[in-house]
Each structure stands twice: as structure tokens, then as C-alpha cells.
């Protein structure tokens, strides 16, 4: 069942749609305008938006643009009359999830909702797979990692800026979320930004927001991730990839707790805690003048170094069992696949250069290839061949 926001200036359509969808178990909020919809989204956690294309004043395309800007993962379904199908197709090009042509039957709108909620579920699962260990409980029995957890929980109780260092795939984002959950800010937003995944031209706008007209395409004011994390935590992953200007602005915020949106002169203040991470040697980057020394020392109030998986041999089988159960459930298996002894032995001897993320991906591959059979050496990737005692 879904939380559905209905946006239409025709009261009869809102009422009839709302009654039908509520009977199907959905939770409904209905409004008559784009402005009312944007206000509703501030406190109504919508899973999907149903919006008429043509309304008095701003229409469905205006709402779509605003939603894609502020809630990029929220699907918008456009409702349109037959004569406006071309504009509905344009809406799809601009990011709408789907469109439905009026008049439609209750069964048709329910089918469209179910289909799009299913797609959203798959997309969310794919995002979780891509981030590997981006959320969830921390599993360990390795003394080296238990010490890290103890340190992280102590830092979490303070307001200190935390810097997490470690190789790719060691679970830095997982630890950042753990620090947030253990802190006094746990009920407030946790907002993450991967500084390496955004173009330099977009990163400052994403972090600090922008005002209307700041650059081509800035059609409205937009808050940045820093403001979105007010009273919560902003996690800056791969902070070494920040531009020089971005580094200077983050430094200023850490010093004075103030900033300006891109293209704005108004100084703003927010109460946001910074947790940062990097898989690069920041000290070395400082020495090479590739990262600001003053920012490094501002970030490095509470430093945590993540141990690579090769230094946590006790955790390999523990994590593998956990990932096996997850992969089996995702693939519809009623039981967890068995693993041959030779595979466990190879797992124990392998160096895991990709760390926990690599283990996660290897398990996923093995479960898919093995199906309901036992996982054997033949199901392992090629890089394991040189470590095997018999040919794969």
C-alpha cells in the first residue's frame, strides 16, 4: 500500500480517486494546486504523486520540475485528457514515471499505481545493491573492528566533526550512518553526498543550494544538502574530490557555521554536523598541495581508520553467511545455498582487495550462478583462480 498525493483542480476527480484508492488500502492526501502540493510534501511522506497535466495557474509540468528538483526519487504520474497526449509524452521525457489518459477506470489507475510502485521498489533495491553496505546493522567479531566501533560510538556522543579514512569497500558510509544513529541527532535527517559522483559544476549547488537565476536552468530557489541536514548529519563521502572553491566553503562552514547559496548574497546559518570520508591519503594530498591543510585539520578532529577486510579474517565467514541469506531471499530461494568446503578455504586465503563490497558482489554472483545447487569453485570469478589449490 502507498501514500498517494493527488493533485487536481477538479474537486470531483480528487474525491472519486481518493475514495477508490482509500478502499484499496492506500493513504491519500489531495490538493488543488501545485503550490499546495509542494507544501503538502513537506509533511506528507508521499510514495507517489498523481497530478493533472492542466490546472489553473501552474500545471503538471511545473509540479514535475519542482518534485524532480527537491524529491528526485519520488515518482510522478501525469493524468491527461486524450488531446494532450503529446504533452504527456513530453512529461515522460522530463522525468515523469508514467501517464494515464482521462477518462480512466478505477481498475486502470490502480494498475498504473501498482506497476510504478513495483518499479520504485526495484530501483530502491538496485540503489541498495550499488551502495553495498550503505545501510543496516554492522556485523563483526574482529577485535580490530570492535575497537573502531567503540571509538565511533564515543565520537557519536559528541558534536565533533568526524573523518573516516579507509580503502574503498570497507564500509565507511555504513559507519557514518552508525555514528548518526548513535548520536543525539538520530531523529533528524542523515544526508549523504558522494563528492566524486557529481560534476564540479553541480557539486556546490548540491551542497549549498542556489537561488533563482544563479545559472542556466536555475528556474527556482533550491536548498542544498547542507540545509536539508539541518539538526542532523551531512556525510561528505570522498571529500578529497571537492574543488578548491568547495573546500573553502566547507572550511568556512566548519569555522563559522554559515554559508551562502550559489548566486546569493544572503548569509545563512544551519545546525548541521559534518562527517567526512575518503579512500585517499589526505595527508599526502596536503603535502602535494592538492587538499587544503586548514580544512584537513578542521575535519580531523576525530579520525577513524577503517581496517580492510584482510585485517578482519574473523569477519569473512560471518559476512558471507549474512550476504548469502540476503541473496537467497532476493532470488526467491526458500533456503540458503550450501557452500563447498573448498570455497570457504579459498575465501579465508584470499586477500579481498575490494574489501566487504567485493565479498558482497562475489556472493551475489555465486548465488545467481549456482541457483539451488551448492556453491563451488566453478562459480567464483576469475581472480580467484591463482589462489585455488585445484583449477576452477
Q: Tell me which CATH architecture of the largest domain applies here.
A: 3-Layer(aba) Sandwich
CATH T-level topology of the largest domain: Rossmann fold
Query: Number of folding domains?
Result: 3
CATH class of the largest domain: Alpha Beta
Determine the mean pLDDT: 86
> Helix fraction?
40-55%
- Order of H and E elements: EHEHEHEHEHHEHEHHEHEEEHHEHHH
Task: Return Rg in Å.
Answer: 24 Å
What is the strand arrangement across the widest sheet? 2-1-3-4-5
Strand segment tally: 12
**Main β-sheet, in a few words?**
5 strands, parallel
Structural class: alpha/beta
Question: Could you characterize the architecture of this molecule?
Answer:
The protein is of the alpha/beta class and 392 residues long. The protein folds into 3 domains: 3-129, Response regulator (Rossmann fold, 3-Layer(aba) Sandwich), CATH 3.40.50; 143-307, Rossmann fold (3-Layer(aba) Sandwich); 310-387, Helicase, Ruva Protein, domain 3, CATH 1.10.8.60. The chain is built from 15 helices and 12 strands. The protein has helices spanning 11-23, 34-40, 60-70, 85-93, 106-131, 143-156, 172-182, 200-208, 225-228, 244-256, 282-287, 293-299, 314-330, 341-349, 355-370; strands at residues 3-7, 27-31, 48-52, 76-81, 98-102, 162-165, 190-194, 233-237, 258-259, 268-269, 273-278, 302-305. Helix 4 links the parallel strand 4 (76-81) and strand 5 (98-102). Helix 2 runs parallel beside helix 3. The longest helix is centred in the N-terminal third of the chain and has 26 residues, at 106-131.
Amino acid at each position: 500500500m502507498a501514500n498517494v498525493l493527488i493533485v487536481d483542480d477538479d474537486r470531483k476527480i480528487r474525491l472519486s480517486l481518493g475514495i477508490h484508492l482509500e478502499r484499496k488500502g492506500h493513504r491519500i492526501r489531495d490538493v488543488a494546486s501545485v503550490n499546495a502540493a509542494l507544501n503538502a510534501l513537506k509533511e506528507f511522506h508521499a510514495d507517489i504523486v498523481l497530478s493533472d497535466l492542466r490546472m489553473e495557474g501552474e500545471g503538471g509540468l511545473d509540479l514535475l520540475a519542482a518534485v524532480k528538483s527537491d524529491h528526485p526519487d519520488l515518482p510522478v504520474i501525469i493524468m491527461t485528457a486524450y488531446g494532450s497526449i503529446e504533452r504527456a509524452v513530453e512529461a515522460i521525457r522530463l522525468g515523469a514515471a508514467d501517464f494515464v489518459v482521462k477518462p480512466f477506470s478505477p481498475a486502470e489507475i490502480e494498475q498504473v499505481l501498482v506497476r510504478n510502485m513495483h518499479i520504485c521498489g526495484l530501483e530502491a533495491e538496485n540503489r541498495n545493491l550499488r551502495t553495498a553496505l550503505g545501510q543496516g546493522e554492522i556485523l563483526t567479531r574482529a577485535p580490530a573492528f570492535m575497537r573502531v566501533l567503540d571509538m565511533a560510538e564515543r565520537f557519536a556522543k559528541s558534536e565533533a566533526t568526524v573523518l573516516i579514512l579507509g580503502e574503498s569497500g570497507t564500509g565507511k558510509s555504513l559507519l557514518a550512518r552508525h555514528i548518526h544513529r548513535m548520536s543525539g541527532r538520530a531523529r533528524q535527517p542523515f544526508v549523504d553526498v558522494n563528492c566524486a559522483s557529481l560534476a564540479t559544476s553541480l557539486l556546490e549547488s548540491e551542497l549549498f543550494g542556489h537561488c533563482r537565476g544563479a545559472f542556466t536552468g536555475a528556474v527556482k530557489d533550491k536548498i542544498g544538502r547542507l540545509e536539508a541536514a539541518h539538526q542532523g548529519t551531512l556525510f561528505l563521502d570522498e571529500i578529497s574530490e571537492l574543488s578548491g572553491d568547495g573546500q573553502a566553503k566547507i572550511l568556512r562552514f566548519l569555522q563559522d557555521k554559515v554559508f551562502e547559496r550559489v548566486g546569493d548574497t544572503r548569509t545563512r546559518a544551519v545546525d548541521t554536523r559534518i562527517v567526512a570520508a575518503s579512500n585517499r591519503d589526505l595527508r599526502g594530498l596536503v603535502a602535494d598541495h592538492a587538499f587544503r591543510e586548514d580544512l584537513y585539520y578542521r575535519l580531523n578532529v576525530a579520525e577513524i581508520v577503517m581496517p580492510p577486510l584482510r585485517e578482519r579474517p574473523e569477519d569473512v565467514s560471518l559476512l558471507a553467511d549474512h550476504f548469502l541469506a540476503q541473496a537467497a531471499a532476493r532470488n526467491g530461494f526458500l533456503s540458503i545455498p550450501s557452500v563447498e568446503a573448498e570455497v570457504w578455504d579459498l575465501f579465508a586465503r584470499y586477500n579481498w582487495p575490494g574489501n566487504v563490497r567485493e565479498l558482497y558482489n562475489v556472493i551475489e554472483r555465486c548465488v545467481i550462478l549456482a541457483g539451488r545447487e551448492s556453491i563451488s569453485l566453478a562459480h567464483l570469478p576469475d581472480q580467484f583462480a591463482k589462489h585455488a589449490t585445484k583449477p576452477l
